[in-house]
Amino acid sequence: MTDETRTNAPAMLASGLVLAAVLFLVAAVYSSFTIIQPGNVGVVFNRWSGALKTVGQGVAWRVPWVTQVQSYPVALRTYTMVQRGAEGAMQGDDSIDLPTKEGQHIRQDISVTYNTSQEKAADVFRSFRGAEIGDIESTFIRRTIITTAQNAAGQMSLTDLISNQRGQLQGQIQEDLQVQMNKMGFVVDKVNLGASHLPDVIEKQMQQKMGAQQNAQQADYELQRQQTLAKAKVAEAEGDAQAILVKAKAQAEANKLLQEALTPLLIQNKAIERWNGTLPQFTGGGAVPFLNLKDLGGASGEGHSTVPGR
User: Fold this and answer.
1) Pairing verdict, β 52-55 and 40-46
2) CB 212 within 8 A of CB 122
3) Averaged pLDDT, 69-75
4) Which residue segment(s) compose the domain that 224 sits in?
5) Are strands 52-55 and 187-197 parallel, antiparallel or unpaired?
6) What CA–CA distance (Å, rounded) separates 67 from 44?
7) What is the band of 8 on the pLDDT scale with cuts at 50, 70, 90?
8) Mean local confidence (pLDDT), 145-162
9) Residue 224: strand, helix, or coil
């Protein structure tokens, strides 16, 4: 070692110590605070005392290597499990396998919207020992969603799962999931069931069943239509018959009244009213027939009879 090297050694050592001190100071300053992003709440944990406290969004101060700060969502957050990998939390087919009470299985898309609150954030930190929300989602939340959905679906038939009881299944999953997640400090806002994916065999069976039901409904409709037309024709025929009967009765009644009104005197009066004053022309001999004017005037006590002749 030369004299020059021995002379520079203390200076180099001092420079190294200064650089280390600067780096330590920078690291200490950088570690003394954490930024709580909007829509989150921070939990500050003291490793020495074990104390927990929550802070709102913004800067959360802490003692380096002594306190830990973790943030959790108070804004709504959605965890999605679907068949299309680009839309879910995982790559590939991430839809849930749901069993039915008949032992059949379908794939079901599902999404769960949840959050925590500033009051419950400490419970989340304590339950999961300060784990990040992403780790909690991929473990506890994911497993809880799958288990809860499978338990609820296992009590229902395949037809109920994909048709008229679908809303009931969604409500049951949300109710059960709320209980499980609330124990850990989370609040479930909404469970949404997306598309149901049936195996090819079941899909074919369902299509055949729906086709048979549609054919039966069409046949029933056609039968009802024919019955309605037949009833309409019967009603029309009865109406026509009734109309003919009423008309016949009315005509008979009119004829009866007419016969009662046509007395000999009325007939002669009608003949006189229609006579134009010209005597009928006859050829040959014999008397000329004419009206019996005596009978016409008998009602009033007046008149005389004249019988012209040739």
Assistant:
1) antiparallel
2) no
3) 93
4) 207-236
5) unpaired
6) 7
7) low
8) 92
9) helix
Q: 193 and 214, same structural domain?
A: no
Contact 187, 120 (CB under 8 A): yes
Rounded Cα–Cα distance for residues 256 and 237 (Å):
28
Handedness of CA 300, 303, 304, 305 (dihedral sign): negative
Number of domains in the chain: 3
The 8-class DSSP code of residue 279 comes to P
67: tokens are 């306190």
Closest CA to 79 of 169, 156, 186, 152: 186
- Tell me, yes or no, if the pTM score tops 0.70: no
Cα distance between residue 181 and residue 145, in whole Å: 9
Q: Which residue, chain included where needed, has tokens 């829509």?
A: 39
Q: pLDDT tens digits, residue range 75-87? A: 999 999 998 867 7
Predicted local confidence at residue 266, as pLDDT:
64
Task: Kindly report the average pLDDT of the chain as a whole number.
Answer: 80
103 in the same domain as 24:
no
Tell which phi-psi region holds residue 286, choosing left (phi > 0), alpha (psi between -120 and 50) or beta. left
Tokens 């016949």, residue? 248
The pLDDT score that the predictor gives to residue 214 is 83
Residue 251 lies in a domain: no
